[in-house]
Amino acid sequence: MRRLVKVIVIVLVLAGAAAGGAALYMRSTRAEPFSFRTMPVTRGDLLATISATGIVEPEELVDVGAQVAGRINSFGKDVRGKQVDYGSVVDESTVLAQIDDSLYAADVASAKAGLAQAKAAQTRAEADLGQMKAKLEQASRDWERAQKLGPGEALAQSAYDSYKSAYAVAKANVAVGDAAIVQAQAAVSQADASLQRAQRNLSYCTIKSPVKGVIIDRRVNIGQTVVSSLNAPSLFLIAKDLKRIQAWVSVNEADIGQIHPGQPVAFRVDAFPGEVFRGEVGKIRLNASMTSNVVTYTVEVLTDNSNGRLLPYLTANAQFEVARRTGVLMVPNAALRWFPQPDQVAPEFRDTLAGYSRRAIEKAAADTSPKGSGKPAPDAKDAEARMTPGVVWVADNGLVRPVRVLTGLTDGTQTEVSGEDLAEGVEVVVGEQVRAVAADTTNPFTPQFRRSTTSGGETGGAGGTGPAGGTGGRN
Q: Do 171 and 132 share a structural domain?
């Protein structure tokens, strides 16, 4: 019994010592006030854009092919007298290549002989017709005399019948001769067409440039055989005018509604990283493409390439200008996303803290929007009418107080804001740091504990409505 009492006493003493040590440690620590990360409200220009990528393409391309089959014997000369190659400048009708024409030259010779034969047959048919007409004239006179005499004592019946049949035969022969003339003329026309076909095929052996331009691609070599069947083989690709160039940009279906002809576009190419090229939307192609269930539209961006710096098939990183605001107040998007804890808010605002929550701000935005009020939607150019409610937090004696604002255009980093209590230079909270530091003790070897947490706008809160409520996916 005494042993049990002794054990209980020891346990109670140890527990008391532990409680006293914990209380002593808690008293020895002191909490620092909240430390907020802030950034000032700035005034400047804001530009909202849609980013997309594309390829630089010549505005007009001509694919030169071969209409006959054969071996490439040689290349022509460009305007500088050099052999046609990549980048050669050529004029209209410049000889680009020569195909072996021996077979086609033989076809021309054969067609010429056939035409001569047809013409000779026509001449013979005309001579035969003349002979037939002479016989018809003789048979006609004999038949006239026989008709005057008539069958009787002066002219036997058999002779009378003979003259009559001879006249009919001669007349029929003249008709046959006329038909032979028509047939011979048709044969001459057919032979002439065959000759023209053979000559045209022979001319196709000389490949000429149909336009004035620059050769972008040469797809054959000397000695290579080209075969023309259903599709003409491509030999050269010619850009008609490299001063007129386009960027074919693929735009996501979610953004295509904000693209329109004449819209300003700025784009960069990797070949000239420090240079910005300007252009405008020419047209939107309606034949959309789908890749991995993503629908994209090709937008033609027209640009001036008078200096010739843009080369075909460069990758273009384009930004379509959606809206621009000049001289407006701006805050970081993180300031509109950050929301404090109740103990971080000034006491006079804690009772109404729920009114500054993300849900309350979104509801207020919906209630005041033209759609929610039943009023017609404002014109797209009226930026003021499209602003939505939001809230930012301003540091005040170690705590924060709310400032209601209207949010407008955003570029993904900064957002346009306006409000009566907001001015340029006001520091708004974008994050917070809470630290607890152990107080100094008489023992220098006593370990000190440090706890630090950082919130950089990852916690959802007021200001998540309107353009700044998301992550700002547009640059």
A: yes
Q: Do 447 and 339 share a domain, yes or no? A: yes
Classify the C-alpha dihedral 427-429-430-434 as positive or negative: positive
Length of the chain counted residue by residue: 475
Question: In this structure, are 279 and 331 located in the same domain?
Answer: no
Q: Find the CATH number of the domain harbouring 276.
A: 2.40.30.170
Q: Give me the residues paired with residue 57 across strands.
A: 246
Other beta carbons less than 10 A from residue 276's beta carbon? 10
- Clarify whether residues 110 and 193 are in a common domain: yes
In a domain, 16, yes or no: no
User: pTM of whole model > 0.70?
Assistant: no
Contact 315, 269 (CB under 8 A): yes
Tens digits of per-residue pLDDT, 138-149? 888 888 888 877
How many folded domains does the chain comprise?
4
- Domain extent, residue 261, equals 50-58+240-325
- Phi, psi angle pair for 359, to nearest 5°: -65, -40
pLDDT tens figures, 18-62? 665 555 444 444 444 568 899 999 999 999 999 999 999 998 899
Q: Are residues 419 and 364 in the same domain?
A: yes
Regarding whether 426 and 396 lie in a shared domain, the answer is yes
